Amino acid sequence: CQKCHQQEFASWSSGPHAIAYRSIFLDEKHNTSRHLMDDCLRCHGMHFDGGIRDLVEPLSTKGPWRLRRAELMESPAIPCMTCHSIHRRGARHEERRLEAKISGPRQERFRPSLAFFDRRSMAPVEVALLPLPVMREGGRAVKMSPDPRQALCYQCHAPLSTREVFSGDDRTPVGVHEGISCLACHDRHRQTTRASCANCHPRLSNCGLDVEKMDTTFANRNSRHNIHTVKCADCHPKGVPARRVRMAGSLN
Questions:
Q1: What is the pTM of this model?
Q2: For the segment 213-240, what is each residue's pLDDT rounded down to a tens digit?
């Protein structure tokens, strides 16, 4: 992949999805609190040809742990082919350089190579066939972004069977960011969020505060206001102030 997709490879390799087998399966904090099991390989090490017993020992909460395949120590557990396939079914795809001649609404939303590698069938499943869950917050159905690329995210960042937001490893946004796609804020390869606010917001929020300096986990990981769930009332417990009307071109 790196030979042709150098920019994408550089972004991926500097992000969390380039994590090595060693960092996941020899993590003392995780392994002392949770048992390693075959389901771990569904997202971490999906291309490993074998079960968890063939990869790590001992399978208990008492270490020390070691990889039975030492050559995998620094190998990426979530490689490019986790979310991409080389081949696809159907007609040959048009060259990308022709996109400039296509009007905006008819331009592709994502490349057809997007697919999730299913280790049970040892084959990629294209994004169009992956479902988006119907998420809930209490008894309320959560508004979901129609972005089909999110279906990739939900394969691993999945809720529990209750489909309650933030259960399991779910990160479905609610509050002020409800209905926004994962990819609206997270860089598609590197997963960084540095430019996410500026992509959508003016420098100042509706209440006149700098959105990047608000007390949320975007500005401070220790904030009690998670950026995925923050609501206006979290910062305005006495009532949300009226929306300011700005003059065109004004920063005030």
A1: 0.80
A2: 888 888 888 998 899 988 888 877 777 7
Q: Would you say how long the chain is, in residues?
A: 252
Sequence-separated (6 or more) residues with CB below 8 Å from residue 96: none
Q: List the structure tokens of 61.
A: 């909460």
Dump pLDDT digits (tens) for 30-68: 999 999 999 999 999 999 999 999 999 999 999 899 999
Using alpha carbons, list the distances in angstroms from residue 125 to 89, 129, 214, 246.
Answer: 11, 7, 40, 47
Give the three-class secondary structure for 210. strand
Q: Which parts of 5-109 are beta strand (E)?
A: 56-57, 66-67
Do 130 and 116 form a contact (C-beta atoms < 8 A)? Answer: yes
Closest residue by Cα to residue 116 from 88, 152, 147: 152
In the chain, domain spans: 20-77
* Residue 169 and residue 160 in contact, taking contact as beta carbons nearer than 8 Å: no
Question: What pLDDT, in 10s, does the model give residues 149-195?
Answer: 999 999 999 999 999 999 999 999 999 899 999 988 888 888 888 77
Q: For residue 197, what are its two tokens?
A: 């606010």
Tokens 């986990």 belong to 217
User: Hey, what are 25's tokens?
Assistant: 């399966």
Query: What is the token pair recorded at 78?
Result: 């979530």
> Closest Cα to residue 20, out of 67, 60, 85?
67
Q: Which of 229, 82, 87, 76 is nearest to 153 (CA)?
A: 82
Enumerate residues 6+ apart whose C-beta is below 8 A from 115: 83, 84, 85, 88, 124, 125, 126, 127
